[in-house]
Amino acid sequence: MFIRFGSAAVVAVLATPALAHTGAEPHMHGLLAGLAHPLGGLDHMLAMIAVGVWSALAAGRRVWIVPAIFVAAMLAGAGFAQAGGALPAAENAIAMSVVALGVLIAAGVGLPVGAGAALIALFAIFHGYAHGIEATGAVAGYMAGFAVTTAVLHVSGIALGRAIAIVPHASRLLGAGIAASGAYLVATL
């Protein structure tokens, strides 16, 4: 028990504030900026990997449905931002998605495919909105880039989820660490 909470505390202390979406500088460099953008903030990296881990642990043979829905809904959120839509408190929602995904992993929650897909789509819309609100210039290339990197992070999470599935309590520890990191991100907003 102490190891679980100790590990979560270490991750929370070592986590850095989410600075991926300062709003100070729009992204104007197309594909390469899009490829790099999801790697620029702990909130996005944790969420993308957690989506893959949760999918690997909870979705069985349907492991690819949740990540595919995430990418599609993320692109829809980016399109909504580009169309001038507004989502208040997007950064808070992104940080909370990290907490929620960590809790789902730690608790071993498996949802029916429809419910899981809807939850993931909601998270993804906020992530996509945050990407899309800063995009200018070669927007299509930028969006393609962050979609590719997101998919790669999902695949990494699936591989991690499958690897830890055979280790007793590993998913609980990882989920607790992700949730703790998300809680830290929420607290630093």
UniProtKB/TrEMBL annotation:
The keyword Signal belongs to this UniProt entry's keyword annotation: yes
Transmembrane segments: 36-57, 64-87, 93-126, 138-160, 166-187
Entry keyword set: Membrane, Signal, Transmembrane, Transmembrane helix
Origin: domain of life: Bacteria
One Pfam family matching this protein: HupE_UreJ
Secretion signal span: 1-20
Protein name, entry field: HupE/UreJ family protein
Species name: Bradyrhizobium sediminis
